[in-house]
Amino acid sequence: MEMVASDIKVLNEQIHEASSFVDLLNLELGKVIVGQKYMTERLIIGLLTQGHILLEGVPGLAKTLAIKSLSSAIHAKFSRIQFTPDLLPADVIGTMIYNQQRNEFVVRRGPIFANFILADEINRAPAKVQSALLEAMQERQVTIGDTTFRLEEPFLVLATENPIEQEGTYQLPEAQVDRFMLKVMIGYPNKEEERQIIRENLNPQGIPAIQPVVNPLDILTARDLVRKVYMDEKIEKYIIDIVFATRNPEEYKLPKLKPLIAYGGSPRASINMALAAKGYAFMKRRGYVIPEDIRSICFDVLRHRIGLTYEAEAENITTENVISEILNVVEVP
Question: Which residue range is the domain that position 4 belongs to?
Answer without folding.
Answer: 1-31+230-333
